Amino acid sequence: MIAAADALESLREGNRRFVAGESNIKESLGQARRAELVGGQSPFAVILACSDSRVPVELVFDQGLGDLFVIRVAGNVVSPSQIGSVEFAAAQLGTRLVVVLGHSNCGAVDATLKELAREQESRSPNLRAIVERIKPAIEPLMGSGVTLQEAVAANVRHSVRRLHRGSEILEQLITDGELQVIGAEYSIETGKVRFFND
C-alpha cells in the first residue's frame, strides 16, 4: 500500500516524463508485468477522469498495467456508480489517493455552459443526466461571465466535494486519514497536469 503523498509524487513525476517525452511506460507493459497481475491488483491511485479521447490517463501519468484504477465518464461527473467504484478501490484494494481529473476545453462542461445560457438544448435524456450533474458546479458562477476554464475547475472541485460527502465509506476513510481526494486539471495544449491545492 502506497501512502497518498507518495502516490501523488509518482503521478507528478510521471506527468513530468510525459511532458518531456521521456516516457518509460513500455517497461511496465510486458509479459512479466502481466504475469505479476494475474493474482490481483493494487493500484496506487484512483483517477476519476473525463472520457475525452485526448486525455489518455495512463499515458498522461506515464503509468503501466496495474498502476492506476481509472474511472472515465464524460465531464468527470460523480454518480452512484463512480462512487461505488472509488469505494471498491479504496476499501478493497487499499488505494489511498483519488484524483478527479478535469481538462481544458471539456465538451461536457462547455455543453452545460451553453445550456445554462440557453444556447443549446440537451439532445437526449442520457446527455441531460451528465449536464444535470455539472450544473450545480457552475450555475453559481453564471452571473460573473464565467470562462470555460473557470467552469472546468469549478466542476472538478464539485466532484471532489461529492466524493468527500457522498459515501459513508469514503467519509470515514478521509476522516481517519487513510484516503485523500484531490482535484487536478490536464492541459490538452501543453500535456501538463496542475494539481489543485484546496
Q: Mind explaining what this structure looks like?
A:
- It is a single chain.
- The chain starts with a helix and ends with a strand.
- The chain has eight helices and five strands.
- Helix content is 45%, strand content 14%.
- The longest helix has 18 residues.
- It is of the alpha/beta class and 198 residues long.
- Helix 5 crosses helix 6 and helix 6 crosses helix 7.
- The protein is globular.
- Strand 4 and strand 5 form a beta hairpin.
Number of helices: 8
Instruction: Identify the overall geometry.
Output: globular
Mean pLDDT: 92
Order of helices and strands: HHEHEHEHHHHEE
Q: How many angstroms does the end-to-end distance come to?
A: 24 Å
Helix and strand content put the structural class at alpha/beta
User: In oligomeric terms, what are we looking at?
Assistant: single chain
